[in-house]
Amino acid sequence: MKVKGVAYRTIWVNGDGWSVGIIDQTKLPHAFVTTNLTSWEEAAHAIKAMIVRGAPLIGATGAYGLALAMRADPSDAMLEKAHTVINETRPTAINLKWALDRVRNALHNQPTSSRAAIAYQVAAEIADDDVATCSSIGDHGLKIIDALYEKAGRKRTINILTHCNAGWLATVDWGTAIAPIYKAHDAGIPVHVWVDETRPRNQGASLTAWELNSHGVPHTVIVDNAGGHLMQHGSVDMCIVGTDRTTREGDVCNKIGTYLKALAAHDNGVPFYVALPHSTIDWTIRDGVKEIPIEERAQEEVTVMSGRTSDGEIVPVTITPEGSKAANFGFDVTPARLVTGLITERGVCAASEAGLTKLYPEFA
Fold first, then answer.
1. Same domain, residue pair 31 and 96
2. Is 24 one of the annotated active-site residues of the chain?
3. Which sites bind substrate (predicted)?
4. Which of 115, 177, 231, 348 could lock 70 by a disulfide, CB 3.0 to 4.6 Å apart?
């Protein structure tokens, strides 16, 4: 995608051929800052501190982290150490383990002299695959939006609600849930996006809104609890969100608060779609509520907010009484029964084992 006319991916290898460039997402929306990763430890920190975030992107970052590790020390011991430490940074999103395993498997039985080059090659393949995958997700999701536009007589704007950030900042490019919106907008379909703020880190207000604004897509930021009200009053045509892990039977794990949006959509007859790449499907588990590990993050993310003052200074502000504790669950699970359909790079399917294995027969 483009920032002020310049095309960017969210992760890339620099001109020196080995250091890795990323966008520091903790600085958005007030500043667009890029930084470099020069060690696997820096890659692990970037993932854990959410300098990079979004399931597909942290997978690609993890892959490049192993490449950096192999450049420094291509031994088996370093490979296992870097794999373990990076994998533990974010426990919920399955893409991270998927990407790390793909690199590690490619390095097994390879001479140490070749490992760095192979790791960089596999990481690049993961990144390129994600771009193509997300573009295809956008194409399949576009058909759903176009059908809604056709149903509306091609006479009015299609209103879409999303939660958290599943745009190009969460992937290598295009995004998952936002890719169909970009494709629809670019095709001339009038779309408007209700952007949940997504407390406590405000990925919707800070990142999704910034993306949509940069691309010229009409949108309105709303507080997290406004979605049900909008659905009751017919102001939402469809919901579309991403997912950090999808079970074999179609349960989806996404940013905390997604489950409540799905319940509201179900109660009001609003289609609720989830967009995901193949790397987000965990074929080894069935029950998302029981089996997906839910990340718990620091309470300071809830008790402290940062923002820009009238004189342009970025400052942190404590919003809770001194001594009040906060719980900070990063994700929740939406059962498959509440999901209208899964939008993948291979097409749209029912949120079920039968639906997923029809698209991915190799896992049947």
1. yes
2. no
3. 53-55, 90, 203, 254-255
4. 115
